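PROTEIN DESIGN WORKSHEET
SECTION A - STRUCTURE
LENGTH: 348
TOKENS:
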């Protein structure tokens, strides 16, 4: 009995740590929108040569609300040389591609995996600026095709977690891979996965030499063989020395939240994302959007705080650190609705 009581007291204390506070340390602003009236979900985004790069992604063509709706993937690449400049076209991807993982490095933007209208890919390549022009370099392919994964750079090692292998799959991947960019012959290594369910559309972060994995969705087949999502709230930290550690659960699910997550001090910020509460909302054209708050995880205390409020509702959007601000490139504002908006966040 006393053991159960202690557990109940600990749970109550944990809940008290999740308080609603004003987001006084978050300064939001907008950059010039992408020159596309719809905008893109799941584009690649990063920095090279001081310029901001956005490539690929997908949106919905024609009537968004009819069944079935038509999704289109893109190969376009746009570059913003300065926060006060205008976006310019800078070439094309080797194919229409979206929903991969973006990693910004000192060498440029690394694009990993992704999908088009028919299949998923294992491709990996670097986009980098040279003499004002965008160039592409092939990198070692992923161990298997993968879309809707998450990843982050820890030191000079890329970590990539989860995803889904084919568009038809009803089970997400329980895979965790690493690529040491400084290795003489870089090659993807498969590591032990996190001690929790397989998932896709999870959220990644990096802080103090550790990789973080938050939320995501598990998949299962329904009676008709179609994938059904289970929204997850678990969280994990990985270091090469100690492996995986389970952390406190998120206050809510944050599927496909902007990734990698911004950091400030000892904290990682999971901003907006899909909590799953309105997944069956009808009519879909009246969907209210995703939660407009941020979940702040303090790595020094293993506690979460809910920060109210943020000006955006977003899912499937990459983040980029540029000019001392975290930039949010397009994404999904609510189901079936993309946005050309580009928001930036300065943390104090």
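SECTION B - SEQUENCE
RESIDUE ASSIGNMENT:
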């Amino acid at each position: 009995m006393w053991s159960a009581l202690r557990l109940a007291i600990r749970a109550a204390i944990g809940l008290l740590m999740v308080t609603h506070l004003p987001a006084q340390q978050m300064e939001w602003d907008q950059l010039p929108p992408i020159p596309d009236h719809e905008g893109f979900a799941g584009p690649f985004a990063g920095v090279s040569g001081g310029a901001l790069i956005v490539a690929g992604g997908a949106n919905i063509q024609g009537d968004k609300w009819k069944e079935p709706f038509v999704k289109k993937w893109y190969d376009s690449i746009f570059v913003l040389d300065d926060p006060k400049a205008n976006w310019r076209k800078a070439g094309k991807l080797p194919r229409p591609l979206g929903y991969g993982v973006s990693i910004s490095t000192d060498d440029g933007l690394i694009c990993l995996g992704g999908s088009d209208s028919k299949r998923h890919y294992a491709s990996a390549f670097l986009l980098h600026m040279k003499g004002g022009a965008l160039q592409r370099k092939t990198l070692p392919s992923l161990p298997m095709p993968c879309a809707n994964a998450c990843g982050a750079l820890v030191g000079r090692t890329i970590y990539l977690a989860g995803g889904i292998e084919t568009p038809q799959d009803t089970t997400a991947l329980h895979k965790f891979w690493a690529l040491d960019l400084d290795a003489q012959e870089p090659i993807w290594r498969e590591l032990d996965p996190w001690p929790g369910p397989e998932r896709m559309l999870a959220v990644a972060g990096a802080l103090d030499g550790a990789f973080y994995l938050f939320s995501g969705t598990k998949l299962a087949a329904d009676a008709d063989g179609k994938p059904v999502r289970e929204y997850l709230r678990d969280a994990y930290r990985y270091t090469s020395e100690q492996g995986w550690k389970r952390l406190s659960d998120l206050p809510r699910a944050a599927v496909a939240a902007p990734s990698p997550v911004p950091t400030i001090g000892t904290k990682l910020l999971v901003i907006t994302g899909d909590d799953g509460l309105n997944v069956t909302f009808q009519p879909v054209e009246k969907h209210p959007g995703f939660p407009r708050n941020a979940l702040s995880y303090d790595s020094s205390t293993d506690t979460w705080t809910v920060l109210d409020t943020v000006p955006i509702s977003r899912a499937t959007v990459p983040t980029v650190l540029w000019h001392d601000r975290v930039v949010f490139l397009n994404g999904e504002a609510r189901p079936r609705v993309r946005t050309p908006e580009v928001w930036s966040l300065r943390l104090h």
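SECTION C - NOTES
Residues 19-347 form a domain with the Neuraminidase fold (CATH 2.120.10.80).
Residues 1-19 have pLDDT under 50 and may be disordered.
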